[in-house]
UniProtKB/TrEMBL annotation:
<comment type="similarity">
    <text>Belongs to the trans-sulfuration enzymes family.</text>
</comment>
<keyword id="KW-0663">Pyridoxal phosphate</keyword>
<protein>
    <submittedName>
        <fullName>Trans-sulfuration enzyme family protein</fullName>
    </submittedName>
</protein>
<dbReference type="InterPro" id="IPR000277">
    <property type="entry name" value="Cys/Met-Metab_PyrdxlP-dep_enz"/>
</dbReference>
<dbReference type="Pfam" id="PF01053">
    <property type="entry name" value="Cys_Met_Meta_PP"/>
</dbReference>
<dbReference type="InterPro" id="IPR015421">
    <property type="entry name" value="PyrdxlP-dep_Trfase_major"/>
</dbReference>
<dbReference type="InterPro" id="IPR015422">
    <property type="entry name" value="PyrdxlP-dep_Trfase_small"/>
</dbReference>
<dbReference type="InterPro" id="IPR015424">
    <property type="entry name" value="PyrdxlP-dep_Trfase"/>
</dbReference>
């Protein structure tokens, strides 16, 4: 199926839409049935039947169908947040006594959740590469979790190499694909078992919703939907699902614009004397660019730079000098954002991930690249003096 068609039309011409340009938002919390027997059958299959908002809903279901098709997966389950999806997914795959391998840097709250699971007897180990995986794997290891490009440092993982290694050892693989979106990278086609996304970022695209999704084979999604999804209660609202559907309509156009502007800004920063390094996989100078070009069809506009300083005060001053970039968390919307982990991330998490003090994350929005480059140049003047 064509990705543009999936984003714009999949499921939107069906009879229940009644010809509406925007698919209806089903606001009701409960659905009724003609008989007690029908209700009982629906409850037993609440991952697919409409019973109660906490299970699923026609509007949410349409968003799930689109997302599954984009990732080339059988099923998708949407959650009320990205962490809802991540927490439920990990929980569905491990039990007390199990061990998780974490390859490379991952989203900070994911690490915090894995630490939280320690009180239930689930342990984890962070490793940098497959050699580290070879050293850290245990008889109790059940899951390998990773991102590519990785959190903050944007290192590229050879996905087929990792999934092949994991499959030979009987491990389930889960990958966070938020950075690329399903348009630019399709990990399920490279052997990943389950893919998670924060829908709050590029897919939503307008900084007006919080949501998450997990996508994969029905054999893994169905038990998760009937158990962790229901019990954790992190249900996506139909209103947020409608925003996901609208975001998907413009996703192909927006991602091309993000790619263009992000690469222009990264190219400027790469040669600036006030910058030690630029971590953008789309730059030919990036160590993982060759692998990225092989397994990705495009590049988003989220990347990091390392300022030529080891001072938190200098990092703060740089952020404060920016006039067009707004200081804030999250990313993927129209507006350009800047954040510095040394000022906002728990130090133990930052140390685990190997993130230096001078690292600054940029989310390049849809404003003109020249405007953003000028803003960064003026803020860097003091550091390069």
């Amino acid at each position: 199926m064509d990705d543009d068609w999936i984003c714009g039309r999949l499921g939107e011409d069906e009879p229940w839409v009644l010809g509406a340009v925007n698919p209806p938002v089903f606001e009701n919390s409960v659905f009724t049935f003609a008989s007690a027997e029908e209700l009982g059958e629906a409850i037993r299959n609440e991952d697919e039947r409409y019973v109660y908002w906490r299970g699923t809903n026609p509007t949410v279901d349409l968003a799930q169908r689109k997302l599954a098709a984009l990732e080339r997966g059988e099923r998708a389950k949407c959650f009320g947040s990205g962490m809802g999806a991540i927490s439920a997914t990990i929980s569905s795959l491990v039990s007390a006594g199990d061990h998780v391998l974490v390859l490379g840097a991952v989203y900070g709250p994911t690490t915090q959740f894995l630490r939280y699971l320690e009180k239930f007897g689930v342990t984890h180990t962070h490793v940098d590469d497959l050699a580290g995986c070879d050293s850290a794997i245990r008889a109790s290891t059940r899951l390998l979790y990773f991102e590519s490009p990785s959190y903050m440092a944007y290192r590229v993982v050879d996905i087929t190499g990792v999934t092949g290694w994991a499959r030979e050892r009987g491990l389930v693989t889960v990958m966070d694909n938020t950075w690329s979106t399903p348009l630019f990278q399709k990990p399920l086609t490279m052997g990943v078992d389950l893919v998670v996304h924060s829908l709050s970022k590029y897919i939503g695209g307008h900084s007006d919703l919080v949501g998450g999704v997990v996508i994969g084979p029905a054999r893994l999604i169905r038990p998760l939907a009937l158990t962790e999804y229901q019990l954790y209660g992190a249900a996506m609202s139909p209103h947020d699902a409608a925003k996901v559907i609208k975001g998907l309509r413009t996703l192909p156009v927006r991602m091309l614009a993000h790619q263009e502007r992000g690469l222009a800004v990264a190219a400027f920063l790469k040669d600036h004397p006030g910058v030690r390094a630029v971590n953008h996989p789309g730059l030919p100078s990036h160590p993982g660019h060759t692998i990225a070009a092989r397994q990705m069809s495009g590049f988003s506009s989220l990347f990091s730079l390392e300022l030529d300083t080891d001072s938190r005060q200098d990092v703060s001053a740089f952020l404060d000098k920016l006039r067009h970039f707004r200081i804030g968390v999250s990313w993927g919307g129209f507006e350009s954002l800047v954040n510095a982990p040394a000022l906002s991330t728990e130090e133990s998490v930052r140390t685990t991930m190997g993130i230096p003090v001078g690292l600054v994350r940029l989310s390049v929005g849809l404003e003109p690249a020249d405007t953003l480059i000028k803003d960064l140049g003026l803020a860097l003047e003091g550091l390069s003096a």
